[in-house]
Amino acid sequence: MLPSNALLRVAKDGSIGPLLAALKWIGSLYIEVGPWRARYLEEALRLVYDPATPRDGFLLQTLLLLTIGLDGNCEQEKARQLLSESENLALQLSINSRNFAAVHGRGAPVLEESWRRTWWELYVVDGMIAGVHRHTNFLLFDFPADVALPCEEYQYLSGKKGIPPLAYLEDLENKEFSGDDRPFSSFAYRILATRNLGTFLRATPVYGSSPDCLERIENILTNWRVHLPESKRDALNKDCRVDEMMFQAHMITHARWAQWLLGPQDEDDLRQLIRLNIGALDQLGKVWLAASTAASQVRGVAQDIYRVKKARQVEPSFWQGLTQGEVITAIATDETIMSEIESLHGIAGQ
């Protein structure tokens, strides 16, 4: 979306009613508005399907926002429908072509940047939904796109004078060979992480795959990490504020695999990770139903893991190699974390 000042200027001509309606609905998720929340969604959808609504980039932004909001509220079937409509509209508009932004940018660099970001955000969302739910196939991964990469968030928000010269995906992917030392945005590295995700989704399932397949995947992940500039290696920017784009980029990379590559973890690390995930998801669950659902799933998995472990503790071989003190400590720790998980479950249920 356009930065607020530019968005308000465009809103004066009355051409972005559906987009504003989608914003109103998403905003209502963060405050208590009673029955109005459902009405805001109904109004946004009505405008989306109104024959008088132009089928343009602003409608695409509307569909994309509604897709994200519905998916976050566990309305996955409706979200998939809108995602499909978003993809079809994007390809009909040819927003994935290099010249779309200039042709439809009204001579305003910030609007041109908005169109570039719209394509790439749709691309990332398509990949993330495919990776998380595994009900879609990352359709846009297979379509060519020569759209310039987005700039940094602060450059976009600062307006036309802050937007730097354009860079493209091939510039980023070949920078080690070309000697190109220009900086690339966090959004660009998020796109690269999503492209890696698409490569994995197209590959043969890793479970039971050959060592060569596993090695290829590990090489892709390692290359993404080791070629990050120093300023992008964690989710904090130079002002020690959270860089949302890099946070998502790292999340996408680490999630692939946590699923596919990581072996057994140190038990204390695993306990801390479970606590961290439950706590974070509970906080997000105050707004997004999908996070609340995920928190319940994590609790359920954790409970199952520790129940199985407790059942195995009656076997003498389970404690082989441990001292009596280590055994007592392990049992006490397991009991503590089970109590914590069950306690958190009870609080969430209330």
Write up this protein:
It is a single chain. The protein has 350 residues and is mainly α. The chain has a domain at 284-349. The protein is 65% helix and 0% strand. It is globular, with a radius of gyration of 23 Å. The two termini are 37 Å apart. Mean pLDDT is 85; it is low at 260-265 and 346-350.
Count the DSSP helices: 16
- Order of H and E elements: HHHHHHHHHHHHHHHH
Strand content: under 5%
CA radius of gyration is 23 Å
* Structure class: mainly alpha
Helix content: 55-70%
Q: Give the overall form.
A: globular
Low-confidence stretches: 260-265, 346-350
Main sheet record:
none
Number of strands: 0
Mean pLDDT over the residues: 85
Q: What distance lies between the first and last C-alpha atoms, to the nearest angstrom? A: 37 Å
List the helices and strands and how they pair.
Layout (H helix, E strand, L loop, with lengths): L3 H8 L5 H12 L7 H13 L8 H16 L3 H18 L6 H5 L4 H25 L19 H5 L11 H5 L1 H4 L7 H17 L8 H16 L17 H15 L8 H18 L4 H24 L11 H26 L1
Helix pairs in contact: 2-3, 2-4, 4-5, 4-7, 7-11, 11-12, 11-13, 14-15, 14-16, 15-16
Brief digest:
With 350 residues, the protein is mainly alpha-helical.
Which keywords apply here?
globular, disordered C terminus, nucleus
